[in-house]
C-alpha cells in the first residue's frame, strides 16, 4: 500500500530534490502515519428482509427517503395466505360454536345424560320396591336379582354418559385453544406481509420492485442512519501492529476535493482479510463530517506518532532499509543509520549521522 498520500493538515512535510549533490540532516517536526483506504458508511445499517413468501404488491419508499421506526415500507400479497387465513377462521368459529351454550354436540350428550338419569331413578325405585317385597316373601329371589341387575346397569350407564359429556367438553375446550392459536398465528403471518422499519434512518438502496416474487429472507432494501456516518478502513497487514484505539486519522474523500476531515480510531478488527491482506479499522469523525452517502471512497493517514524537532533526512536518500551514502573528505562511503519514525518524505535519524554529515544521492 502507498503511505502518506494525503497532505496532513497538522504538518507540511518537504523533501529534497534528487538532483541535489548532497544534503545534511536537519531538525524538523515529523509526523509518522500509516496509509489506509476505505469508505464512508452509515451507522445502524441493516438489511430489510422479507418475513414471508409472496408477491411484492406495494413499495412505499424510494432511495434517499427518511423513514421512522415502525413505518410501513413494503406490502406483500401472500400466495396462499388468504385461503389459509379463511380456513383457520372457519375452524376457530366452529370450535367456539361447539363449546357454546347452544352447542349441538353438547346438547345431544346432555340429553343422553338426562335420559340415563331418568332411567336410573326409575330402576332405583323399582329395586327398592322389589327389595321390600322380597323381605315380605312376596316375590322370588330371582325377580329381585333381575331388578337389581337392571338398577346397576342404569347406574353404570348414567356414570358413563356423564363422564363422556365431561370428556367431550374438555376436548372441545382444547380444540378451541388450538384453533385460536392457529388463527392468531395466521394473523401474525398475515402481518409478516407488512414489512416495517426497525429504526429511524435513511433508505440507501431498494432491491425489489412491485410484481416480483419474494421468498422469505429475501433482501428488500438497505437502511442506515441518515446523519451519523463512520469510516471503514483497510490497513495493510505490515502496518497492522501499529494500530491503536484513539489514534488520529486524517481523511480525504474524492467527492470533497478541498476538504480534509479528522477522525479517531474507534475499533480494530483482529481478522485478516486474505483477499487483499488487510485488516479492518473503523474510525469516528471528529468535528465536521461528510454528508450521509453510502460507500464514499476515501484515503486516510492514521497518525502513529508526533515527533517534535527530530533529526531527519529525505527518505529518498536511504539505501535498502537502514543505510545512506555520505561524503567525507571527498570520498563517498556507505554508512548504516538507526532509523526512528518515518513518513512518505522524511526519516528520523537516531544514530549514525549528525548535523554536519553530508548525505549524497545513492547513485
Q: What is the β-strand count?
A: 20
Count of the domains: 3
Q: How many H/I helices? A: 3
- Our estimate of the beta-strand percent is 35-45%
Q: What sequence of helices (H) and strands (E) makes up the elements? A: EEEEEEHHHEEEEEEEEEEEEEE
The low-confidence parts are 1-20
The CATH homologous superfamily of the largest domain: Efflux pump adaptor protein, beta barrel domain
Approximate helicity band: 25-40%
Topology:
Blueprint: E1 22-23, E2 26-42, E3 46-49, E4 54-59, E5 66-67, E6 72-77, H1 81-98, H2 104-135, H3 141-191, E7 194-196, E8 201-206, E9 213-214, E10 219-224, E11 229-236, E12 248-253, E13 261-273, E14 278-286, E15 296-314, E16 323-328, E17 331-336, E18 338-342, E19 346-351, E20 359-360
Helix pairs in contact: 1-3, 2-3
Gist?
The protein folds into three domains: 22-43 and 228-360, Efflux pump adaptor protein, beta barrel domain (Elongation Factor Tu (Ef-tu), domain 3, Beta Barrel), CATH 2.40.30; 46-78 and 193-224, RNA polymerase II/Efflux pump adaptor protein, barrel-sandwich hybrid domain (OB fold (Dihydrolipoamide Acetyltransferase, E2P)); 81-191. It has helices spanning 81-98, 104-135, 141-191; strands spanning 22-23, 26-42, 46-49, 54-59, 66-67, 72-77, 194-196, 201-206, 213-214, 219-224, 229-236, 248-253, 261-273, 278-286, 296-314, 323-328, 331-336, 338-342, 346-351, 359-360.
